[in-house]
Amino acid sequence: MRTAVLEAPRRFGIAERPIPQAGPGEVVVRIAATAVCHTDLSIYTGDHPGVRYPVVLGHEATGTVETLGEGVRGLSAGLHAIINPIIACGRCDMCRRGAGNLCRNAGLMGREVEGSLNQYLKLDARYVYALPPALPLPDATLIETLATVRHAQERIGLKAGESVVVLGQGTTGLLHTRLAVLAGADPVIAVTRTRWKLDLASRYGAHHALETGAEKAVDEVRRLTGGAGADVVIDTAGGAATLMAAMDMLRPGGRLSPYAVSHECCAQFTTFPLYYKEVSIIGSRALIPEDMQPAIDLVASGKIDVSDFVSATYPLERTAEALAEYEANPGKILRIVIDSGA
Ligand SMILES: [Zn+2]
Ligand SMILES: [Zn+2]
Asked: Dihedral through CA 22, CA 23, CA 25, CA 26, nearest 10?
C-alpha cells in the first residue's frame, strides 16, 4: 500500500508499505477519504508543539472495514466506517472518569499515532464506528469535526431560548451555528468577514448573519439581544482581539467557549471581566466516544447537511499539493479531502 509520509515540515514523501494485519480485537480499515484541518496544517508547517517527524497525518477519516481480528463484535467486512482518532489508554484517572479526551497517555491519530494518509489502517475496534451506506464517505469525514463541536456544546450546556454568538464561520463555526439552532438557541448570531460563509450560515439557520469582524460586532450583538448581551459566545476564530470582543459582547453571567485553538498571547487580558460579569470560560478538547454516535445520527437523519464542506479533493499521491493549497488559501477552503484511492 501507499502512505504519504510528512518527513519534515512542508516535505512529503510517498512510501510503499505492507498492508497491516488485524490482530485480536483489531480492525483494518481500507481508507477512502481523509479531511485535512487546521491541526494537520500546523503539523505540516511545523507550528504544532511537540510533534516528532516523520509523521503520517490524518485523523478525520472514513473508509470500509476490510478485515477483522479475533473477537471483534458489531462490525463486519464491507461496512462503511468512520474513525474516532482520539487514542486513550482506558486505565488512567481521566479515562476512568469518562474523559478519555483528557487521557494522561493520550494521542491523536495522525500525530502521536499513525494517521490515515494511508490506503489501509489498523486500529483497535473501539475506534471504528459504522456509517449508514448511503452517506458519501468524503462528506462523512466531517462527522469527526461535528463530534468535537458537539462535545463543546455539551460542555456549554446550551438551553433553548438562549442567545448565542458564533465568531467565525469556517467549518467548525458553521457546525456550531447549525448545532446551536438545533438546540433551540434564539437568536443565533453568526459573525464572519466572508460573504459566502454568511450565506452558508443563513442556510444553516442562523437568525442573524453579521458581515464584520468580532470587535465591530459588539454593538450589534447588544442591539440584537435587547441590550443584554449574549448568553453564550463561541469563538471559532481564535486570537487575542476576538477573545476580548467575545468578553465584551457577553451578558453578565454569560459563558464563553474559546473553541479555536490559539497560541497567540492576549496582552490586554485581565481577570476583571471574569469577576465583574461573572463570566464562565468553558474549555473543550477534542471529543469523547459518546459524541460519535450522536454526530453520526445528526448527519444520517439529515439534520446536519455536510455536503457543502468539501472544497477540493486530491489523490494521496498529491498530498503535498493539497497541503500547500490549504496553507496558501486557508480562508477560501472549508475542507480539503485526500482520496486514498484504495
Ligand atoms: Zn481535525
Ligand atoms: Zn487514559
From this structure: -30
Ligand 1 centroid distance, CA of 34 (Å): 10
Q: Give 45's contacts (C-beta < 8 A, 6+ positions apart).
A: 9, 10, 327
Note residues around ion ligand 2 (Cβ under 5 angstroms).
88-89, 92, 95, 103
From CA 173, how far away is CA 30, in angstroms rounded?
A: 30
- What's the Cα-to-Cα distance from 140 to each of 32, 39, 82, 131, 275, rounded to whole Å? 10, 18, 8, 8, 42
pLDDT in tens, 50-101: 999 999 999 999 999 999 999 999 999 999 999 999 999 999 999 999 999 9
Which sequence spans correspond to the domains of the chain?
A: 2-136+307-339, 149-281
Compute, in angstroms, the gap from residue 101 CA to the centroid of ligand 1.
Answer: 14
- CATH topology (fold) of 2-136+307-339: Quinone Oxidoreductase; Chain A, domain 1 (3.90.180)
CATH code of 149-281, in short, is 3.40.50.720
Cell 475542507 found at: 335
Provide mean pLDDT across the span 29-36: 98
Q: What tens digit of pLDDT does each residue of 153-167 get? A: 999 999 999 999 999
The pTM is what?
A: 0.96
CA 298 from centroid of its chain's CA atoms: 15
